[in-house]
Amino acid sequence: MQAHVRRWHPVAPPRRRRYTVPMTEPDQTPETPPPDEAPGAGPEPAPAPVTQQARRGKWWLALVFIASLAFGVWGAWKTFAPADTTSQPRDQRARVEALEQQAATLRRSDQISRDANRDLQGTLAERDEEIAGLRADVAFYERFVGATGQRRGLTVHQLHLQPQSDQAWHFTTTLTQNLNRGAVSSGEVTLSVEGTRDGKLQTLDWDALRQDPDAAGIAYSFKYFQEVGGDLVLPPGYQPMRVIVRLAPKSGAAVEQSFTWADATRRSEPGA
Question: Which of 17, 25, 161, 187 sits at 20 to 30 Å (Cα–Cα) from 167?
Fold first, then answer.
C-alpha cells in the first residue's frame, strides 16, 4: 500500500497593490485613495468597552487633583495674605494684657519712688538747714557764755525784716551782752528808718513807724541775749535805705547800731 505523502508548497505572499498618482496640475489636489484601499490598511479594531471600575478611577483622579489644587491655593493664601490683628489667639491677647498691666504697675511704682525720693531730699535739706542753724547757735552761745568768749557790752547782734504787706514789715532783732556775767540788762528798743520820698531825704522815727504819737518802745530784759520783735509801717512812696536800732537801758548810755535795708531784708527774699 502506497503511502500518500502531502507535499507542502510555499505560498507566495499576497502582492501589494501599487497605486500610481497621476500627474496633476499645480492647482489640483491629488486624489487620496479611500481609507479602505490605503496601503497596509486593515480592518479597524472595535473600541474596548469602558468598565465601571475605570470610571471610578477617573473620578478619584479628578477628586485628588481638585483637592491638591485647593490645598495649594489655601497654602498660598495663608502665606501671602496680610495678617489679621483682630483674630489673635486668646492666650496671646491675655499675655499682651498682662504685659500692659505689668508696665502700668512699673510706671506707678517708679512715680511713687520718685515722689518719695523728692520728699526725702526735701527732708534732708531741711535737716541740713536745721543742723546749720544749731551749729550757729552753739557758736553764738559759746561766744557769749563760754570762758574764752570775747567780752562785749550791750549790743545789737542782728536785725531781720520780713514783709507783711506793701507797707507793713515785721522786724526781729537779737540783743546780746556778756560783759557783766550774771547781771541783768533791761531797757527799751526803738527803731528809725532813713530813706527818700518824692526825691527828698526823710527820716521816720519810732512814732511814725508805729503810727502812734505816744508809742512806747519794746521792753527787753536778759542776762546774755534776747530776741525781741515788732511791726512797723512805711508811708506810700517811701524808699527805705537804712534802719537804726536804738537801745535805751535803764542804767547806762544808749546804744545805736545801723543796718542797711538790703542787709536787713536779705533773708526774707526768695532763695536767701
Answer: 187
213 forms bridges with which residues in the sheet? none
How far, in Å, are 189, 216, 231 from residue 162 at the CA level? 18, 21, 9
**H helix intervals, 81-184:** 90-145
Which residue ranges make up each domain of the chain? 92-149, 155-268
Tabulate helix, strand, coil % of the chain (nearest 5).
Answer: 40, 25, 35
- Grid coordinates in use for 18? 501599487
Fold of 155-268: Immunoglobulin-like (2.60.40)
Per-residue pLDDT of 204-261, as tens digits, reads 999 999 988 888 999 999 888 889 999 999 999 999 999 999 999 988 889 999 999 9
Output the pTM of the full model. 0.48
SS3 199: coil
d(CA 103, CA 113): 15
CA–CA distance, 124 with 111 (Å, rounded to integer)? 20
